[in-house]
Design goal:
With 171 residues, the protein is an alpha+beta fold. It has helices at 14-27, 57-83, and strands at residues 2-4, 7-12, 45-48, 53-56, 95-104, 107-119, 122-138, 144-145, 148-149, 153-169. It has a single domain (2-169), classed as GSPII I/J protein-like (Pantoate--beta-alanine Ligase, Chain: A,domain 2, 2-Layer Sandwich), CATH 3.30.1300.30.
């Protein structure tokens, strides 16, 4: 039996020391496996540390640009629809024309709409709008590739147009 210094009433038996040693050995951290930090990726790709994955930076740029173009086209469509709102036809008239502009989320559209009384409360309406859809996207310059820092850049510009034809009846 062992006695702890300065505490005569507590004794530690050798079996308890052995159990404590076993637990200490189990809880001790195991040596880490060797990690290879040299991964060769193709040109325009970057390595994801801790994995065996290489990611193509150009593909990321293309995906982000496609998503941005879809959002811009949606905003353009909303602006064009707003620019072709039906004009008001008074009771004493048979025709009405409206020239309008509308904007949504930074996109502006120009539209012309017309309405014609066909008979009584039956109307024919037509509208035309045009807008420019444009934008650009660039990846962060911190993207490190096997050939150095990379900042893929993509831009787009095209003109969208909308034509609508409708009938309405009022009562």
């Amino acid at each position: 039996m062992f006695r702890l210094a300065g505490i005569p009433s507590i004794t530690i038996r050798p079996i308890w020391l052995a159990i404590a040693g076993i637990f200490a050995a189990i809880a001790a951290p195991s040596p880490a496996a060797a990690v290879s930090y040299l991964v060769i990726c193709g040109s325009g790709s970057f390595y994801v540390p801790g994995t065996t994955t290489c990611i193509n930076a150009n593909q990321i740029s293309a995906t982000q640009a496609a998503t941005a173009q879809q959002s811009a086209a949606t905003f353009t469509g909303v602006a064009m629809a707003a620019a072709t709102a039906d004009p008001f036809v008074p009771d004493n008239a048979n025709y009405a024309v409206a020239v309008q502009g509308a904007g949504y989320e930074g996109t502006f559209a120009f539209g012309v709409a017309g309405m014609m009384r066909l008979q009584g409360n039956l109307f024919l309406s037509v509208g035309f709008a045009v807008a420019a859809d444009y934008g650009s996207i660039a990846l962060d310059e911190r993207m490190q590739t096997s050939s150095g820092p990379m900042s893929p850049f993509q831009n787009w510009y095209h003109t969208d147009w909308l034509v609508r034809l409708g009938m309405s009846y009022a009562w």
